[in-house]
Amino acid sequence: MNRRQFVAAGAAAALTGRGRRIFGQSAAAVNAGLIQTPLGALRGQVIDGVRVFRGVPFAEPPVGVLRFKPPVKVKPWVEEREASQFSAEAMQDGDGEVPKSEDCLYLNVWTVPGAEALPVFVWIHGGGFTGGSSFAPVFDGTEFAKAGVVVVTVAYRLGVFGFLDMGPLLGAEYAGSGNNAVRDLICALEWVRENIEAFGGDPKRVTVGGESAGAKLTDVLMGVPKAQGLFAQMISESGGAERVWPKGNAEAVARGFGEAWGRDAEKLKVAPPDALINAQVRFVASWPQHFPLRMEVDGSLIPRLPVETIAGGALSGTRLLIGTNRDESALFVGPHPQKITAADLGNVPLAKFDEVFARYGAVYPGMSEEQLRIRAVTAEEYWVPSVRLVDAYLKGGGTAWMYRLDFAPASGRWKGEAYHSEDIGLVWDKVNEEITNVAAERALAKQMHAAWLAFIKGETPGAEGLPLWPQYSSETRETMVFDKVSRVEARPQEAELRLWDGVMGEVIVVNNS
To answer: Which residues are tagged catalytic?
Structure first.
């Protein structure tokens, strides 16, 4: 398994009104799991006092003539629609036991009977833009719903179906299709705006968030003009807005995929989806850069680099909770490879990374070579892009709170490492019962879950047992450090951060020769 495959696979493995009427429906119907939305009736389930609606369509199936095209809003239905089963996950390589389909644009909702005007949390899953699903067990929204938050988990097209510009291969009609996953998410957020009141949610109190690729998508959405006004708050866990190609790079990637496809490009429109996934696997394995399938500055949906739009004040008056894990890259960087290659990097050229990495030993003289690699790749992939994003956001008039997760398992594969995706179980209050310090993790999960709840409800993030969490500023950089005993640090890792001055944000030149 190569580094790119391990990122997605490893992250996936780590997750392991009383008597009144609502939208014309009786309380009895509500309690039975039946709901009337503007689009039609949905029949969900009531489980442990929580109403769950699975596999709710927000767009027409992106199949046939809609393959590689922008999403089309779902049409209303007449008959009652069953919403008790999750949909298939988006097309991807991997676990054959989970159904996969191009027909993947569905969402899931958790709420409570009688809910009205509750805050809404829209969650975008991660998976490296090529994997993952909206219904991993860790994303069960029951605990959030019981605490007064309507949870919506959304799907989007992955890989070549959502992140590859087909214009160079199929013509101008398909130009900018590398941003179709972003369009899917905007379509889902528009569904929330138009339908969430039926589930007891307030469309003016929407928080959008995600982890890893989900955080990167959240961060890019912050810089997309068409998405503005669809959410009031953002949560970014291990993200950054750097994963966006200039148009020339996106075109080169498309030509590279065309070579891996090796057939008449017109067949891309009608070939079985598995054939495209097989070509995608070959292409990604052969490409010299990390994660070639990504969004692009297309001049329309994404008119310029997202951080530039964000710094311009597009999100003034909104709120952001953002952070990273101390040892993110422990999930996929260790004794092998001994040397970082271009395939390990997503945001800077290898030569520039090597210049920065050569100075890491002086900043952390007590670290092993492996620890230095983990720390540097973590910075390049997650931490520095997150700092750059929050600085741009504050410049644009937003309010932010920053965190770093230092809590590390005392046993198991990632002993001593605050690895990538560890935050998910803590935020969703689902702990890893296999580690030896599970009591400490359970206590931290309660605190982090409570802090996220407070933020989603429009309050200052915090919880019993945590120190006061100050707002972040680009001058003092006060950061909540989550650990067995959490603390607030000013300017954490300052010397390391200085190593990256002027580095992040350079264009990686794509060469597919």
So the answer is: 212, 328, 420
User: Cβ neighbours of residue 309 under 8 Å, at least 6 residues apart?
Assistant: 222, 223, 224, 225, 303
DSSP string across 96-136: TTS-EES---EEEEEE-TT--SEEEEEEE--STTTS--TT-
Q: Do 61 and 67 form a contact (C-beta atoms < 8 A)?
A: no
String of DSSP letters for 363-392: H-TT--HHHHHHHHHHIIIIIHHHHHHHHH
Return the C-alpha torsion angle 217, 218, 219, 221, nearest 10: 80
How far apart are the C-alpha atoms of 157 and 139, rounded to whole Å? 18
> Is there a contact between 381 and 461 (Cβ–Cβ < 8 Å)?
no
pLDDT band at 338 (very low <50, low <70, confident <90, very high): low
Look at residues 299, 330, 473 and name the one whose alpha carbon lies nearest to residue 402: 473
Helix axes 213-221, 180-195, angle to 10 degrees: 70
CA–CA separation, 146 and 144 (whole Å): 6
User: Can you say whether residue 94 is alpha, beta or left, with left for phi > 0 and alpha for psi between -120 and 50 degrees?
Assistant: left
> pLDDT tens digits, residue range 12-41?
444 432 222 233 344 444 455 899 999 999
Decide if 212 contacts 128 (C-beta within 8 A): yes
Q: 354: which 2 tokens?
A: 């090597």
Whether residue 337 is preceded by a cis peptide bond, meaning omega within 30 degrees of 0, is: yes
Pairing label, strands 40-43, 81-82: parallel
CB atoms within 10 A of CB 76: 9
Torsion of CA 221, 118, 390, 431, to 10 degrees: -100
Single pTM value for the model: 0.93
Q: Is the domain 3-16+28-457+480-499 a CATH 3.40.50.1820 member?
A: yes
Higher pLDDT, 512 or 242: 242
